[in-house]
Amino acid sequence: MSTGSRSVGSFDWALILIYLALISIGWLSIYSASYNPEIENFFSLENLHFKQLIWIGLGFIIITFILFLDSKFFERFSSLIYVVAILSLLLLFPLGKNINGATSWFAFGSFTLQPSEFAKVATALALAKYLSDIQTNIKTLRDQLRAFLIIAIPALVIIPQPDPGSALVYAAFFFPLYREGIAAVYLILGASVVTLFVLTLLFGPLYIALGVVGIAILFFLKNRKRRPSKMLYLGIILSCTLFSFSVNYIFENVFQQRHRDRFNIVLGKEVDTQSIGYNTRQSEIAIGNGGWTGQGFLQGTQTTGKFVPEQDTDYIFSAVGEEWGFMGSGLVVVLFVLLILRIIQLSEKQKNEFSRIYGYSVAGILFIHFAVNVGMVTGLLPTIGIPLPFFSYGGSGFWGFTILLFIFIKLDGNRVNEW
Amino acid sequence: MRKLLLLSIVLSTGLLFMGRLFYLQIYDTSAVIKSENNAIKVVYDYPQRGHIYDRNNQLLVSNQPSYDLMAIPQDIKPFDTLGLCKLLGIEKEKLLKELNRARRRASWLPAVIVPTMSTEDYAYLGEQMHKYEGFYIQKRSLRDYQIDFGANFLGYIQEVNQSMIKKDPYYKSGDLIGRQGVEQQYEKVLRGVKGVKRYQKDRFNRVIAPYKEGKLDTLPVAGRNIQLTIDAELQKYGEELMVNKRGGIVALEPATGEILALVAAPNYDPALLVGRERSKNYTQLDADSIAKPLFDRVLQGEYPPGSPFKALTSLIALQEGVVSTENKVYCNGGYRYGGKKPLGCHHHKSPVQLIDGIAYSCNSYFASVYRSTIDKYNTPQEGIESWRKHLASFGLGNFMGYDLPTGRKGLIPNAKMYNRSYNYPTYRWGTTATISNAIGQGEVLMTPMQMVNFTAAIANRGWFYKPHIIKNISGVDTIPSKYKEKQVTTIEPKHFEPVIEGLNNVYNYSGGTANFLKVPGIEICGKTGTAENSIRIDGKRVDLTDHSVFIAFAPKDNPKIAIAVFVENGYWGARFGGRIASVMIEKYLKGEVTRKDLENWVLTHSLEEEYQKPLLGKPFPINDGKRISAKFLAEENQEL
Asked: Hey, which of A56, B87, B182, B496 has its CA 20 to 30 A from A84?
């Protein structure tokens, strides 16, 4: 299977070192967050940190496997992998196990597998394959729709599990699309949608409609010498107002109360530290308790007292914040930023389009996870349950991110060999 | 361009997160405080509060155990309300009210539900407590008073309030702190230092382990016992004498400045401020705006000293050299100056010299020497300032530095004060404007504590130690050094002898104002005082019956006790003050009272009727409605 022409030394060691650093700090944090002094045996399967160590060990086997595969394997089999991933997601509906209200897992005895963690990799491969096809022209509407479809199918299958957080991650594929030349109007459209959404929740649709009309009139008057199209302005005004009213309608009538609460707390419309906002408040307290250098390993009062719910999974970053302080949590932020920037830098160097698009997808996915998770844990974003890559406890997630990253490392390692 | 989008978003997100982390971890410190509350259970180990003894090692104050029913509202599970009420012997409504109050305040903090249960209640309840989750019993130590007097200098202990916690973070909600008296003054000595144990809690409020392996835990430091300079027997006797009177008695040991007795009347039983009824009783005492039992008249009451001040007038005149013991002054029933109303005097032999002047308390004599004292200087301003400096050296007109937390400065007027009130230099003022100072009746004000202090300084012939109530702190075996520094007055020792001679003759002369108060076998030196006073009723000045003031020390040589007695509206100096001073001195020096006639008279005479007069809302006679005439004095067989 191996091409045999590459030495190990040509893999990008910067990425590998950052990866190793992140999983080490991640594992120590899980150790703290799940530490239970009553379990004396380190090798007990009751210890989450020991289980995570097993996942990491198995992860290394997967890494070895990936690095020894033929680099053309992924490009060649991307369609098949994609189909298998979609099928496994669909199979969850009849066969999945319900944990915490979401049917996102296959259960094999006490061992569970979350296919959505792997579907990201499959989607990235499929998108890269489609966009790098010589016949695809992303400037055409038809090909744009097809690309959107590749991204949307897994997301739409994941949403009703329900796992809207994991579905949100598929927004990451906007980055490779944009890099490959999709029109900037999508960017403006996307940004406007988000802005209008937030402003509507803050001020209500009536004020938004008035505001949009006002701004439109100002622009119209300013540009009137260029004889702007009245229809275009009218269209923009109408669609913005409609969007605003429908957001309001969906928020009030389609969203469940718990979703509304989460948004309201982050937008500062409600202050609730005991029930809904409890997670975020406890997380902020734990992080704040860290100070400059942290309370020290296993010394964080919030962490050892298990005050932060879900601290070994989604809220793991709060354990870093409390026990290692500004120095430690800042270092983690820097490592993530370096990791993503290095992936972007290497992607730009790829001569192979497939590798470049895949690299951008990896960077985008890691970024969305990092930004949404840390944003949530530090109280900047609403509570959206997605894991922090390489940190949060869980085999599927860990393997998913590892595979995602190491396929890129493998592709990058082959760069010199081609052509 | 397109290459830069993700790159710049990633970089700015990284910067945003660094900023957020900096805000949460470095800038905003409130999280640290919250996390302490959250995750650490702090258990305090309170040491026994130190005992208080009197100068003869009689135990005055010790401790008794007391048990509070506590609850942490958020931990309470549904329970048998009626069953608990029955155990506690309280109404269901009261229990629910207390629980609601605790819940409203902070549902995660322990709150006292039923304070100070009896030991029997506790023993009974203790076996049943496991049924009531969220409730527990906290043992506390309350004061156990062995005596029913001395509340004014002992003080009391109470639960700390929020402002005290803010001032001194040592105290946590529910802690006890000494208030007033020696309990407040020697709070740190008596309380010791509480021990602290910290436990790590989890989010279910369960203790999971000692916090940081107990490395931060501390052991309690026991409170120290203290010994007071108070003579409990004398104190008790003094309080008995003062029943139905208002005012105070303070006695010092001149050689040391030790306070032997500090009687403020009316007083109250210190046990009133202990236990379940404490707050109710305190409110009641505090609300008594007429008798004001919480107002320590000995330390806080500022009164015109009256005639005892004449001793100081004499000393200053002698020191300034404006008079000798030979100078004679004629008294024609008053001192006339500037064509105004004379400063009146009573009938006595004339002319008088210094010693007789004191013995007969001749107003004319002292007005004359006071005038010479002030007029020695070119201006009355300089004269007053010189006079004031002498008085200040006796500890007058300022805080005295004794070790009790309340007090007043008294008032010794200075030149500035007269300048202001006479609008100098537009108008001028002369010595005669201040002539009432000569007899302690003008602007001069003193607390009884200040009066006894100058008495002790006279007894010592020119020096004193700052009065203090602490005799010993166990384990420290020393007292604050400021009570070991001799304070020397500006008067040379030789000038004291004639004054003391005069004070002695107050008792010895047949016409001396305290002749009938002599105690066999003891040479007492003393001085009567009769202080005019008034109050305002509906904005109008209304004169009240004169205060009875008396200062004394004994024996004349090598004095063992100095005393000041102040009885509000006691009519004249010797009447109450003089009698009380005589029996107190005898009690202290001999251990028993032979002048039973004096003792009985004091015990059987009440001034309550006198105190009621201004409250009745109609005009009333003062000083029994009589002029103090020779005939009247003869009838009473007493001297003024």
From this structure: A56
pLDDT tens digits for range B452-477: 999 999 999 999 999 999 999 998 87
B25 touches chain A (CB under 8 A): yes
Alpha-carbon distance B564 to B43, whole Å? 49
Strands B52-53 and B226-228: parallel
Q: Can you give the residue range of the structural domain that contains B130?
A: 66-145
CA torsion through residues B566, B570, B571, B574, sign: negative
Are both B484 and B500 inside the same structural domain?
yes
Mutate to test the interface with A, among B2, B8, B24, B74 (most CBs of A within 10 A): B24
Q: Given this model, what pLDDT does residue B342 score?
A: 67
Ranges A136-145, A372-381, B442-451, B618-627: which has the least confidence: B618-627
Report the SS3 class of residue B227: strand
Considering its fold, how many domains does chain B have in total? 4
Does residue B289 fall inside a structural domain? no
Nearest to B32 among A289, A341, A363 (CB): A289
Residues from chain A that touch B29, judged by Cβ atoms under 8 A, are 288
User: Which residues of chain A fall short of a pLDDT of 70?
Assistant: 1-9, 100-101, 254-255, 258-259, 261-277, 416-419
Tell me whether residue B583 is in a domain.
Answer: yes
Q: Enter the DSSP assignment of B514.
A: T
What is the C-alpha to C-alpha distance for residues B200 and B212, in angstroms, rounded to an integer?
8
> Shortest CA distance to B359 belongs to which of B317, B313, B307, B318?
B307
- Can you name the residues that pair with B527 across neighbouring β-strands? B551
* Residue B561 CB contacts under 8 Å (≥ 6 apart), including other chains: B251, B252, B253, B254, B260, B553, B554, B584, B585, B588, B589
Is the Cβ–Cβ distance between A414 and A6 less than 8 Å? yes
CA distance B312 to B488: 15
Q: Which amino acid is at A199?
A: L
Residue with tokens 């400021």: B482
Look at phi and psi of residue B570 and say left if phi exceeds 0, alpha if psi is from -120 to 50, else beta: alpha
Q: What is the rounded CA–CA span in Å between residue A181 and residue A178? A: 5
- H or E segment and range at residue A232: helix A230-249
Strand, coil or helix: B139: strand
B12 in reach of chain A (CB within 8 A):
no
Whether B454 is covered by a domain: the verdict is: yes
Chain A residues within an 8 Å CB radius of B8 = none
Give CA separation, B10 vs A127, B13, B22, B123, in Å. Answer: 22, 5, 18, 67
DSSP of B449-511, one letter per residue? Answer: HHHHHHHHHHHTTSEEPPPB-EEEETTT----GGGGSPEE-SS-GGGHHHHHHHHHHHHHSTT
Nearest to A287 among B10, B25, B200 (CB): B25
Please, what's the largest Cα pairwise distance for chain A? 80
In a shared domain, residues B303 and B431: yes
The answer to whether residue B19 is domain-embedded is: no
Q: Do A363 and B20 touch (CB under 8 A)?
A: no
